[in-house]
Amino acid sequence: MTLWTERVGEVFGEYDEGFGPVTVDVAADAWVESVTRARDELGCSYFDWLSAVDELAEGFSVVCHLVALRAPGVDHLLVRTKVGREQPVLPSLTAVFAGAGWHERETAEMFGIAFAGGPAADPEASHLLLPEEFEGHPLRKEFVLASRVAKPWPGAKEPGESDEAHGASPSRRKTRPPGVPDPEQWGPREPGSEAPDPLAHAAPGPARPRRAPRTQRPQRSEPGPEEPTDG
User: What is the separation, in whole angstroms, between the first and last Cα of the chain?
Assistant: First the structure.
């Protein structure tokens, strides 16, 4: 036990050292109070960042990283809480750290978590990093990574296998890219719909241009009699 963990234990009781900064888990209704105590009682005067983790059925973990600046070094603290998946809401930390507003807006945009009383009170109100026409919250785990359908996924081929060889094997099991569910479970059509699949006739090109076969590449010219050679 270090002096820092001893002080954290005195203020919060239980804590987790894990493999990173000391972490304290608090209830959602004590979120603002806990961060305020970390600032006032532990000297965590520097707000570093705030973000979230999608825990699927368990909801979302929201994490705040604070720093206590002391000579000759610094002490780190993570304050973590959890909110439910349906209508996730937390009170804003902007009254404690004004700099939390930007991070709350980003978290609201990426995860759909509202922060009551702050600039991210409505995660659908405005976009911070994404285009205005963007729909959904891309860091939620149910968000379909459709860009992996639009571009060939390298993992669908064996190492060294060409695009032509992969497409010429009708008996080969097609491998779906990670993050892309079965076509009948997502997209603009209802599951089981008779409507044509708008992606069925797409002919996406490779993720990057293929190199020409060696026989088609221009031959490197040999230096002429008056041209200097390397060395």
Answer: 63
